[in-house]
Amino acid sequence: MAGEAGEPDMRGLMPLVAAALQVAWLRLVPTLPHAPKRPQGELRALCPCCGSPPVASLVESDPQSSGVRYLQCGLCATQWYFERSLCTLCEQSGKLDYLSLAPEADAAAVGDPGVAQAEACGDCGGYLKLFSRALDADAEPLADDLASLALDLLLGEEERYRRSGYNPLLIVEG
Ligand SMILES: [Zn+2]
Ligand SMILES: [Zn+2]
Q1: How many domains does the chain have?
Q2: With pLDDT > 70 as the criterion, what percentage of the chain qualifies?
Q3: Strand-pair category, 162-163 with 126-132
Q4: Which domain holds residue 41?
Q5: Which residue of 43, 116, 118, 129 sits 20 to 30 Å from the alpha carbon of 100, by its own alpha carbon?
Q6: Residues, beta carbon < 5 Å, ion ligand 2
Q7: Is residue 159 part of a domain?
Q8: Nearest ligand to the C-alpha of residue 50?
Q9: Is 15 exposed, middle or buried (0-12, 13-18, 19+ CB in 10 A)?
Q10: What is the pTM of this model?
Q11: DSSP string covering 32-56
Q12: Which positions ≥6 away from 29 have C-beta within 8 Å?
């Protein structure tokens, strides 16, 4: 099934397959006759173009859309709007926590994995990474997700939260 680690002897090939799929989707999406409608209901957190889960959130900092959060597809890189203060998994807002490796004051250094935050939800126990252009103007969720795996390892060790971000270049043994 999608997202699972697959057969051990095939595992080495999977990042290559994933990269090929990404290239295919990146070419395909601009050829859609019109932009797909914003997904509704339970599908809101899935990519409107290809149906994959998001790899991470991106919060914009430019004057027109400052503070607006988009989810970015792990497969085709489409970005779509999602409310800022809701868990992307269960849509609750009461127990959201923002965890990062670096104390806030140090997080501004560009390329520092500390710019990655985990939006962790105490209601469903899941987390999705969040990157802010206010902290890193060149934030690119797919690459920055891989660059901040230390945060996943830390959260995995604590066993408090489970990763929800989908990155086909990353194979996590379940
Ligand atoms: Zn997609
Ligand atoms: Zn939740």
Answers
A1: 1
A2: 82
A3: parallel
A4: 8-163
A5: 43
A6: 87, 89-90, 121, 123-124
A7: yes
A8: 1
A9: middle
A10: 0.77
A11: SSSPPPPP-GGGGGS-TTT-PPEEE
A12: 49, 50, 76, 77, 78
